[in-house]
Amino acid sequence: MAPLRNDVSLIDIAAHFAPDLIGRSLSKLWTARGCELETALTDAGCMYTCPLTSSPITSPLLVSDGCIYEEEAALHWFRTREKSDKSVASKPKQALRLGPLAEAVEAFLQHCNAAGYRTSEQLEQAMGEAEMPGTPWLRRVAILEASLAEARTEAEALRHHSEEAQALLESLRRQAAEKQELAARRLQRAVRSRIARERQRAAAALCLQRWWRNFRKSDVKKPKKRRGKAQKKGSAKPAKPSAEELPAQLPASATPTPPEYTQFLNKQHQQYARIEEKDKRAVLDFFLDQLMYDSTDFRILIVTSSDERALGLRKVLQMSKAVQYQLVTMQQDEESKRFKELRECAGIISESQLRHNEDASAANMMVNFDMPQTLEDYMDRIRRVDPAVKVMSLPTSPEEMGVIRQVEEHFGIVFRNMEGVARFKILQNRKALRNKLAATGRSLKSGCAVVAVFLIEIRYGSNCIYDAGRCDTARLDTSEPGIDKYLHAPSPGPVVDKNYRPYIPESYRDYIPTMDESGVQYQKYMQGEPDAEKFQDKVLPQGSYRQNIPLSNGAEKDLSPEMMAEAADEALHDPAPVLLAADTRAPEAAAALLSALHLAIGLRRRTTTRQHGGLSESLIV
C-alpha cells in the first residue's frame, strides 16, 4: 500500500450534508450495472486515484464527507490517526456502504426538517422585533422583507435538497431490493442446476448399472430376445453408455472365468448355512450325525482359522452328542469301531496346517468351521481337496456371506442353502422326540426312527401319536434325496429350556456313586454338614464335568445363577460322565444306575463302559 499523505484530512460535514455531493461522487466513480457496482474509468482510460495515497483506486469506499477513497487506505487512516477538531471520529463505522448510505440520507432529511424549524423561528423573531413599539414604519417593512427573503431562500434550498434526498433514498432502496432479488435468483439457479446435475448423474448411473447387469448375464447365459409393445420391429437399439460414463477399471467378476474351475466347484456340491457363532457346534453335530447315517466310510475335514480353535474343537468333538447318540443304538463291536474311526478320521486342522497337509485330498466332506476372509483364501482351501467332496460353509456375519456371494458371481455357480437344516437343530430336540416315542412304549432301535418321527410331524402335524402302522420306517423314503426333501424346509428353530435339570427317580436320589471310599462322607456333604466340606475337592475335583452341572439329588450349593444357567445348558447338550465309588464294581454300578434311568423315562438303550486309568465312565444322553 502507498504511504498516506499528510495534507489530507477527512472533514465531518454531517451538519450541512449535501446529497447531490454523494450523487456526483457515485456517478463519477461507480457505474451501476444491475446490482453490481464496478470501478469506472476516466476518459483517458485511467482509474481514479485515492486522495490519501495518490494511487489508483481498486476497491472504492464512500465516506461520510462525500468523497471516495481506497478501502484499505481509509480503514488504515481511521485506525492510525488521532481525533482532532477538523477530523472525523477514528472509527471504521463512518465508511458508508449501500445500506449505511440510505441511513445517512434519512439522517439528512431529519436535519433538513430541523433547519426548517429554525428558519420559522427566525422569522417569528424578526416579526416580533418589527412589532415593537417605537419602531419606525419603514424600519419594520425593511426587517420583514429581509426576513421573508431569507426564509424564502432557505425554504427553496431545503425543498431542493429534500427532493434530491428523497430521489436518492428511493434509488438506494430500489437498488437494495434488486440486489436481494438478484441474489435470490442466483441461489435458485444454482440449486436447480445442482439438482439437474444430480438427476443426470443418477440416470447415467442407472443406465450404466443396467447395461453392466446385462453384460454380466451374457457371460453366463444369453437370454432370449423378446419384443414388447414399446419395442417394435425395426426400432433402434438402445445405445451403450459413453466411454466417460463407464468405470475406469472393470471389477474382477467381469474377467472370463476358466471353465475348469467352474466344473471343479460344481462337482464339489457347495453348501452353506447362515447361523450364529454360538450355534456352530450344534449344526456341526447334526452334519456329523447325517454323515454317519449316509456312509460307512466317512472322512471329514474341518478347517478352522487358528490352531487354538482347532485344538478346542477337537476336544469338543470327542464328547459330541451326535456321535454318542449313534453309539448307543449300535451293537458293542460296531459301536467301538465307529467311535474309533471318528476319532481317527475326523481331522480338525487350521488354515495354516491345511497348506502343508498332503492327506487333505482323501476327505469326502469339508466343513469351513471358520469362513475365509477373501475369495483367494476360499479358492486356496477347496483346491486342496478332492473335486467330488462336499463343502459345507458356516458363515456368521455379512462379511463372510459376502465371500460366498463373490464366489457365486465370479464362477457363475449357486451354493445350496442349508439354513433350514441348521435351524432344525435336531440334536437339541432329542428330548422331545424321545418323549413321543416313550408315550407309545417303543424304543429307539435305529437312527431312521428319528427321521421317521420328524417326517410324521411334517406330514400329519406335531400333535400326532407315533404309530408303527402309519410311520413304518420301511415305508419312508430314507434315502438322501428323500430326507433332504423334508429337512431342507425352513424351521423357526427349537426353544431351549435353560432351567432343565436331568431327572433321577426319587428312590435313587440318596445313593449317588462317588469317588469317596465309603460314600457316607459324600452324603453328608450333599446334606450340607460342615465337617464334610474338606471332602469337596475329593468329591468334586477341579476340571471335572461334575463341577459345572447341578447336583444329582437336587441340591444347588456355591453356584452363581450364571454358572447354574451354563451348567443347565451343558447338562442338556453334553452328557456328563457318572463318577463311581472306588469300592464299587464299575460295570455293576453303571448297569444298575442306567437300568433305573431307562425304567424312569421308558427307553431301553445300550450303554458302553470304558476304562481310563482306573476311572470308569458311562455315556448317557
TrEMBL record:
InterPro entries to which the protein is assigned, alphabetical: P-loop_NTPase, Znf_RING/FYVE/PHD
Record keywords, A-Z: ATP-binding, Coiled coil, Helicase, Hydrolase, Nucleotide-binding
Signal peptide: none
Biased composition (Basic residues): 222-235
KW Cell inner membrane (keyword) present: no
Residue stretches in coiled coil: 141-189
GO molecular function (one): helicase activity
Region feature (Disordered): 218-259
Protein name (record): ATP-dependent RNA helicase DHH1
